[in-house]
Amino acid sequence: MTGTLRRGWRAQRAVAGMQLKLAFHYRTRAFAQGIGALLLIGLQVALWSAVYAGGDGQVRAGGLTLHQTTVYAAAGTVWVLCLPGLALARQLESKIRDGRIVSELLLPTGFLTQWFSAALGRTAGVTVLVGVPAAIAGAAVLYPFTLDPAHVGRLALTAAIAFVVLFDFSYLIGLSAFFVRRVEGLNEVREALLLLLGGSMMPVSLYPAALRDAAVWTPFVHGFYTPLGTLVRDPFVDDRVVVLGACWAVLLSAAAALCTRAALRRLVIAGG
Amino acid sequence: MRVHLESVHRSYRVRRAPETGGRLARLLRRVSGEVEALRGVDLRVDEGEAVGYIGLNGAGKSTTMKLVAGILTPTSGRVTVDGRDPHKERRRLSAELGYLAAQRASLWWDLPVKDSYELLRRVYDIEPALFRRRHDRLVDRLGIGRHLGTPVRELSLGNRTRAELVGTLLHAPRLLLLDEPTIGLDIFAREAICDVLRDLRQDTAPTLLMASHDLRDVEAICDRIVTIDGGRLVYDGKIDELRALGGGRRTLVIHHAPGHRLPPLPGPARSGERTSTVTTYVFAQGELPGGLLTELFADPQVDDVQIEAPSLETVIKGLYLEGA
To answer: Which 8-state DSSP code applies to residue A129?
Structure first.
């Protein structure tokens, strides 16, 4: 049993390693996206400065200062690049459509876990290429700042939850190619929900109280708002929100596993 | 590994645009039909056996392969590999399965070939020294040493198929499913692949199921042929027995001087194919009149005489036509 687990672990690590390698192979794309993100960050800083204009720097909106909000926006822009998103859903859809899914089903690894490891590898690669330089640049701008171990631990936990939630969303949408003709529409709904309820555009704490309180019960906030709010120490992101995120991560992963089982039984590959 | 299919049916639904109704109705309404890819296939492949799986396009060859690999599930009937359900135990089976579909790339398209092999080594947990030995032998046999650093997408079809075969064999599978492994390949690539497969049969004797349109490959590698047509098996037996299905008919082909009139031959019936220099006769095996060949060779106007058995293609074509 231990041997099987060890072999499985090695296989998943190999899949993740391959995606890491691929991320470096496609480094030009990552750098181009990084430059695009820089421009977007510049725009967001200008917009939030206008929103907070006239204040003395200590004005708070939704419990956040201009500094916190701009850090949130900048980190969120890089976050979108690094974590699983539309590309994963599109890739899975196209592999299901043209039958390349066969190659993955032939490997001695679980299908869901294989995609999870691949997403992890890709995220690691893009983080090294774009996320780490962005974090270093951001830290240089924000210096001096305080970073205690408890905060780092909490940030790591919420980031892990966000990775699982975003992966599960993208994976489930990609997998829906077994049931619907095009997943593009579902992808757009996902984007809209993440934009509206997930806090990928602005911190959820800026929303009216009723909407904000309702939003934290949805899974969408845990892809963006929970980790980014933790990063900027948003007072609204408390233990209750983190626990809710963990529950959603478990629920969505279970749903992904069940859907994988159902979907693979519907597999049809015509033409060789 | 033993492969067993019992009364296997596999059908799937396809959606079509409705042909009747108004424009709005046709836009909103969905019409679906059922396509039967396999209609009650019974097949048993024993440990170490090599079976050629022959069929026209869309006959159900690839579907059978994918059912055996556990990628697809049967609509009804039972598929087992070593007594186990390959779909339920896909992960365990994958470790002992090699599947090559020449029309689909399984190596990583944008990365050098060697990177894909390294990934396969890790995924299949092959001990490094053993991997190196197998890798070097296969790469050498298939002559792709020069291409190991080349991204898969930049390889020619022949080299890509050779590279895919190396990837398929690296973990020494006990069950090998080859879906048209030589399609579109030149004679050298085809020969190289056939040689490796022949040697593999002698060395490790994996159970082998090979779908192909090319009967030369099947004859070179397999000792049994299964023919499928329209989702049903139409022949299952030894290659020699299949040849005998041609009815033991032989064709006597006589090449002669232009316009030369051959003396009436007792026995063989003229097949009707005749040009100014070639005349053919059809006769049952063993019924060629004694002394006829001596007589023909003695004729100064006759250049050559050949006796031809029907090709496997002809026999199989006959099977399809009978089925139709």
So the answer is: I
Taking the CA atoms of A237, A241, A246 and A251 in sequence, report the sign of the dihedral they define: negative
The CB density around residue A206, as the number of other CB atoms within 10 Å, is: 18
Give the global pTM.
Answer: 0.83
Give pLDDT tens digits for B53-105.
Answer: 988 888 889 899 999 999 999 999 999 999 999 999 988 899 999 999 877 77
Amino acid at B13: R
| Preferred mutation among A28, A94, A102, A181 to probe B, highest tally of B CBs within 10 A | A102
Kindly state whether A113 is in contact with chain B, defined as any CB-CB distance less than 8 angstroms.
Answer: no
Identify the CA nearest to B160 among candidates B195, B218, B113, B111: B113
Cβ atoms of residues B9 and B201 within 8 Å: no
Please list, in sequence order, all residues whose beta carbon lies within 8 angstroms of the beta carbon of residue B54, skipping any fewer than 6 positions away: B61, B211, B212, B213, B215, B218, B225, B226, B227, B228, B316
* Phi, psi (degrees; rounded to nearest 5) at B109: -55, -45
Contact flag A18-B106 (C-beta cutoff 8 Å): no
Q: How far apart are CA A191 and CA B107, in angstroms?
A: 32
Structure tokens at A245: 């995120």
Q: How far apart are CA B302 and CA B261, in angstroms?
A: 10
Q: Name every chain A residue with its beta carbon within 8 A of the beta carbon of B12.
A: 268
Q: Which of A251-255, B91-95, B257-261 has the highest mean pLDDT?
A: A251-255
Q: Is B151 exposed, middle or buried (0-12, 13-18, 19+ CB in 10 A)?
A: middle
Type and span of the H or E element at B45: strand B31-45
Q: What sign has the CA pseudo-torsion A239, A242, A248, A253?
A: negative
CB contact under 8 A, A109 and B91: yes
Sheet holding B31-45, edge to edge: B31-45, B3-16, B76-81
Q: Is B172 on the interface with A (CB under 8 A)?
A: no
Cβ-count burial of B160 within 10 angstroms (0-12 exposed, 13-18 middle, 19+ buried)?
A: buried
Distance CA A100, CA A109 (A): 16
- CB of A15 within 8 Å of a chain B CB? The answer is yes
Residue A107 and residue B94: Cβ atoms within 8 Å? yes
Flag whether residue A100 sits within 8 Å of chain B, measured between CB atoms: yes
